Batch of 2 targets.
Target 1
Amino acid sequence: MSALSELYREIALCRRCEIAKSRTRVVPGEGAENAGIMFIGEAPGWHEDQQGRPFVGPAGQFLEHLLTSIGLRREQVYITNIIKSRPPNNREPLPIEIQNCSEWLDRQIQIIHPKMIVTLGRYSMARFFPEKSISKVHGTAQKRDGIIYFAMYHPAAALHQQSLRQTIEADMLKITAVLSQAETVAEPGQQAQQLSMF
Ligand code: URA
């Protein structure tokens, strides 16, 4: 069994949160085990809960459109969420749920070992860009411990707020340049490196 399949098996058995009992299906994540880019959203919604797959509803369609804009298909990247069960009525994830699921996300990152982690939305950003606000940090990258972290607004934000659509599209287009720039940037000691172009 591959490391990811074993992890998915363990995630499906996890009952640490109440929401594990109310979900239809667990949504661990999906994509290539050797993906260079990992996208981390917030939590499964109704469509994801029905299918057991991340980003398959309207926000997912927009994410696929964004991926196409940089020449990628969803099978070429890895897509997951901060939490793996759908909160009832799509409420926001609770701190305890984020904490309970953090072990799963850590192990996904260890297994995939991506070059770049793209955070989608506030909850995912808060984990990798603590103390920052999304309106300031979106479209910027930092390199830490060999991984580039790049923050974006959540794709669903464009569905609710048309004015953010162009911002999200423009941020997505930076990814290719950030990746190629980051390969040539050394990390100074343990300090996070703010990539200069962005
Ligand atoms: N929104 C998310 O954050 N994740 C999904 O999987 C779907 C919608």
Target 2
Amino acid sequence: MKYHIVTYGCQMNVHESEKIAGILEKLGYTPCDKREEADIIVFNTCAIREGAEDRVLGNVGNLKRLKKQNKDLIIVVCGCMTQKEKTARVLMQKFPFVDIVIGTFNLSKLADYIEAVKKGRQLVLMEEGEIDELEPYKRTSGDNAWVNIMQGCNNFCTYCIVPYVRGREKSRKEENILNEIRGIIAENKYKKITLLGQNVNSYGKDLVPQVSFSKLLEDICALDGDFTLTFMTSHPKDLTSDVIDQIAKQDKIEKSIHLPAQSGNNRILKLMNRRYTREKYLAIIDEIRQKIPNCRITSDFIVGFPTETEEEFEDTCSLVKQVKFDSIFAFMYSKRDGTVASRMDGQISEEEKNRRVNILLKIEKELQKEKK
Ligand code: SAH
Ligand code: SF4
Ligand code: F3S
């Protein structure tokens, strides 16, 4: 019996697919590269932008052909897209050959669901629940080991779907994280450990007693072993000096930080509910550069947020030029159902967003040339 997993979206999803692989291997499945040869196909989906969702729908549609050839084939669609109830229902109606639609919170039920489907039932599940700590991972990312330190997000940036599909922030207990990392070190197969969370800087605020992210970094670095440590993603509003100090001080921590700015204009930042200003962002960059001279700094930007004017977009361009990032991702704003920004007046046309994103990418290209 063979499985094939298709993963969309961020590193969080890549890592979750490792959990899915772990669950499937426990059931006796082995991996295969071609979906034509699989007995079970899993689509682990992303909902961050419309384009991501469209790709999933297209590719799931294409599976109909395989299901015709092999009626015992089990098709699972899970991840962020299916955590949205409306999308899950639409998916089930549009693609009745899909066997299991399962949200981000219910992965640990996957094994039971597969058993149920073998008895002939089509299932949907997307309740909020506890994330199971005990499911094993089948690590598939070479010499990098992902370690999840928290789930969810409390920030509700007005454009973003993540808080709706991943729930509220929930930190894992520090001891569980340290134990997982001890295990990774003992396996002697991994050179790099990457800590994952939507906003790693708020790690531990919900724990009793509280643990700070800088303390977690310090405790991980104190573990015996030969590894480098890195993490993503940092939110500028929560990136504190003690974290920057740890990156500077610890030899094991990579001198690299991904710090999404999203916009260089204060009115837009406020509308996005990012809770920092351009000036605050630049002050953090200064502090990083001063304490960690060769630190690699990367960022994300959204262009064409509702009501963004040409001048406001130019503030984003000037921020990119001023900071001289090592690399940036630039996204066209995508309207997500249920978010505050989707209900704002002044949505910008696709054509205009496209024009702006190309300008920003050109600036990025020029910066890259200068750096060489
Ligand atoms: N938690 C991370 C972001 C995760 S999403 C953080 O806060 O930095 C990754 C990136 O996708 C974001 O940084 C943002 O630039 C982009 N993004 C999120 N929602 C978007 C939307 N509706 N339209 C366009 N880009 C979006
Ligand atoms: Fe989305 Fe903002 Fe949370 Fe990042 S911090 S996941 S952009 S709501
Ligand atoms: Fe990641 Fe996409 Fe979900 S970016 S958290 S997989 S919506």
